[in-house]
Amino acid sequence: MSASSPHDTWPELPLAAWQDTRDTLHLWTQIVGKVRTAKTPWLNHSWQVTLYVSARGLTTSLIPCGAHALEIEFDFIDHVLWLRSSDGQARQVMLRPQTVAEFYAAVQVALRELDFSVSIYPMPNEIADPIRFDQDRVHKAYDPDYANRFWRILVRSHRVMARFRTAFLGKASPVHFFWGSFDLAVTRFSGRTAPLHPGGVPYLPDDVVQEAYSHEVSSAGFWPGGGGGPIDYPAYYSYAYPAPEGFAAAHVQPDAAFFSKDLGEFLLPYDAVRTAADPDATLMAFLQSTYDAAADRANWNRAALECGIGRPDKPRPVRPPA
Hints:
alpha+beta, 2 domains
């Protein structure tokens, strides 16, 4: 593959051009994510519900299925939803223009044929004016080109976010995709408990929110915009909970980054990364400088929590005790 191949670039993703596909795909990922949620034991901070970026799209990873296990994967290259059982059986649902109700029914049929009985809550989460999956004939768009672009951005973002994660010795989340908020995220923890979150997140139970923010965090990720949110473009974000005094006024990098009072977090428009001379370095600067702003102002024990960036095939050097 040549260096000039479009698959090596950070593609354009204007929200207006794929808004309908984005909204439909958001709902499809919720259906698949809820299958994992229904069958996977709770893991701190809702980590058990997430999807993961794969070599072809987004995957649930293994889901317990009696004596077997199931994996469901969105393939944004061949545009197929794969349902694969560890007993060797597989089913597929084509990713094409179809209503959420049709997609939901097709997934249910595939699950039954694989002898994977599961009942999921049929209402979307974190979406204004939700429609039951089995009754939603409004959302039905699917543009394969833009679905593929979205996945390619996730792949590139994952690369940088995973590298950023290696410089932290404390508790840190995987780089994972939350289907409720439709974003790719990575979170660092100070190790200290946080004040009880007040809840009130629209269309998300308070007990879920309070468990997610039971400990101090600095969290960052990529969000493609839309979904009724206050910005109409894709962007990277970074926030702290609880937000320490002076956090909003911190100077962060690059110059295109800014603090959104509406969202209570720093934003970096995706286009500022895509068009940069070095997109990876630009995104890394945003991740590091916003983390610095949170950790310094909240007095995290940075000497104990951090280490150098990880290198392939090189163990992290450990100094002997004094």
